[in-house]
Structures are given as C-alpha cells and as structure tokens.
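User: Could you check the structure of this?
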Amino acid sequence: MNINVNLSKAGLYLGPFLFVTILLAPLPKGMEPIAWKTTAVTMLMATWWITEAIPIAATSLLPIVLFPLLGISSIGEATKPYSNPLILLFLGGFIIAIAMQTWNLHKRIALRIILLVGNKPSSIITGFIIASAFLSMWVSNTATALMMLPIALSIIYLVDKKEEMAKSLKNFEIILVLSIAYACNIGGIATLIGTPPNALFAAFIFENYGIEISFAKWMVIGFPLMLILLPLMYFILTRFVFPLKLKELPGGKVLIEEQLREIGKITVQELRVAIVFGITACLWIFRPLFASFLPGLSDAGIAIAAGICLFILPSGIKPGQKLLNWSDLKSLPWGVLILFGGGLSLAMAINTSGLALYIGEAMKTFNNIHILFLILIVVLIIIFLTEITSNTAITATFLPILASMAIGIGQNPMLFALPATIAASCAFMMPVATPPNAIIYSSGKVSIPQMAKAGLWLNISITLILSFTYYFLFANFLGIELDLISH
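Assistant: Sure, the predicted structure tokens are below.
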C-alpha cells in the first residue's frame, strides 16, 4: 500500500516536471513544434496514468484543457473523441450488465453452469472457470469476481475437512480462487465489451485509420483465444503449479443446489432481462447479415437500444416500476468512459501533430528484425507492465506509439496494437494487476508468492501462445499479409 502511495506522490510531481522540461527543451531535429508540444502532454498523461497520481479519469480530461491552450487542436477537435461510437457501445454494455446484477440473473447463470459440469473437484473448478469466463464476456470482470468469490468460499468453508485430505484440500482452495480471477481476465478477451482495452483498441483503430472492428469480427479473434487460454490455465494450475489429487469433494454438489434453492425459481424480471440480453448478443454477433437491408444498424446503436428497452419494460412487481431506473446507474463506471475519450483524444493529437510520423521514422531502424520477435517483445512488455498499473491506462498510452511503430516499418497499424491490447488483459502475477486479482487476494486463501508463482508461468506461456497464434493465424484474417511480415 505504501509503495503505491509513494509511487502516486512521485508521479504527481514527475508528470508536470517532464511536461515543463519538454516544453522548454530545444526542438529535436526533424520534429514539428506542435508534435513536440504533443510529446509534453503525452508524457504528463502517461506519467499520471501509470502512477495514478490523480484519478485516471481526471487525467483523461487534460486534452480538453491543454490542447486548445497549446494550439495542438481546437476545443471541438479535442472533445470529439469523447463521443466515439465505441464509448456508447460500452455504455450500453454496462447498462445491460447492471440490469443482470440488479435482478441476480448473473448469479443464476453461474450456479447453473457450475451444477451442470458435475460435482468432482476437477469438475467444480471447471464449472467456476466456465461461469467466470462466460459472465466476464458480458459483465465487468470486477462484478463477476465479486459474485463468484462468495460462492467459492461457501464451498471451501463447508466441505468436510478430513485431516488426511488437508494438503489436497489446500491445493483445491488455491486453484479454485485463482481460477476465478484468471478466468475473469481471460473471459474479458472474448468480446468487444468484455474489458475496456478491447473497445479502446477498436475505437482507436477506427478513429485514426478508418478500420472497423465490429463486435462479430472481434469475437472471431477473441473467442478462439479464450478457448485456447482457459484449458491452458486449468492445466498449469491443476497439473503443474498446484497438483490437484483430490478425487472427491464431500458436500460440493449439495452446496451449489442449496444456493440455487435460496434464489428460488426464475423470476419474471430475470426472464425479461435474459430476453433483452439474448436478443442484443445475437444482434451484435449476426449484425453483418443484416447490413444489406439495415445499413444504419451499428453495434453501438444495438447496445443503446437495449439499454433504453430496460428503462421501458415493466418489472412486473408493481405498477410503474421498470426493469431499470436511472438511479440504478449510480454504480456505472463513468470514469472508464471518460478514460476512453481521453485516450482517443491523445491518440488523435499524436497522429495529426506529426508525432506519430516522427516515431514511425525512428522505428525504421528495426526493419531488419523479424516481426515475430518484435511481437513477442511487445506482448511481454505489456503483460509485465500491466502487473503494476491499470490495463486500460497502459493500453491508452501505448496504442498510438505501437501503431506508429508498425507504420514506421511499413506494416499495418494493428500489427503490434492488437496483440498488445489482448496482452493487457493477461496479468496474473500480482494482486494490483487487475481488480479480480485483488478481490481474490483479499479472500486470504492465496498468498502473493502463490499468485506470483502461478502467474509467472501463465504470463510466459500466454506470451508465447498469443504471439505465435496471432502471427500465424489472426494476422491474415485482419488483412495483414503474412508474406509481407515474414521477412
């Protein structure tokens, strides 16, 4: 805790110091004055984002003040990215998730999945992994972890702890809580609204390069990756780091059934939210099929329409009550939406000021290094940076830099930006890396050395799998020609 406080305090002063120093320093050869001013703002925002010197969302408002004052852009140009359609997509996704949480639909889904896979220790862990990952595709990772942890703890506390099973049960407990956090992180990769970096990437690529990454197109990449990484995570945890030798878990199935009985039969409210959620997910996935006769249909429009429906549909409890009221949105993470806007506004300035071109020219020195090696290095750096700071802040900071690097060596701007975005969700070593990690650590069932041990193996394994899978499979799908990047 003291380390974080000291880091924030240092960042509070370091950011302005770098900002002023850069503004007063001589202009580098070949760089435009406006690009140098953009560099100063970038260093200030990056420092405050990474150290969380002030709230991340507050840092994200700096372009609105500094860009017009420094002549980098007009106030209209600086604020336009804050209304990007992908931000509205995420807003709609948040509203649907809040409705699911308000009526406890997410808990019912989770319990049903766990019960469905069986009552053996390995099956229960598998059930928690599937439930956590599935919910994290649609509901925030934080909310999913907060809901899944008490269910796991109830199983841990109430099983019959026989002395001869002590060591096996300990490994089971560690695996169970870690699998929740890790599955939440991995599940968020699968959809565009699963975690903020995904939507931030899509918005950045569209805003700056006119490349559309639809909900369906992202799923073609994210969903298979999730299907690869979840079994990998299960294998590393249960067979390698904490061997699971427990063959039977006394009382496990009974506890899940008791939890289901407690929440009772499915309610009218849950059913209506489930219908809205199901229709919305189908429209997101199959929207390309409707493009010919509904050209105005967009992922953001679908999300907002679903959100509006939840404010219209009656709850069925009492006259006038709807499935959602505006007061229910007090838990909506508005700060994440502002962070999107600030990141996109900064990216816009980096591109229009000539700073991106300058970075790209500097990157030409890497022309003779194999692309696969560069992807590996980028993924590794982002994964380990995310262990100590916000994955969304890291993504916002590095996207314009990585896109410029790719262009500088004559490649598609997505070449490094996409694997880096996915890598930002793959931090497993430290409690501070992601909210699910912190939530699981707070249970007291896993220590930092235990989390770091499992996380290190996952980080290394996922670095290799993500880099090779992206290079050999997904690059071609995204229109990045393999014969061009294989030099």
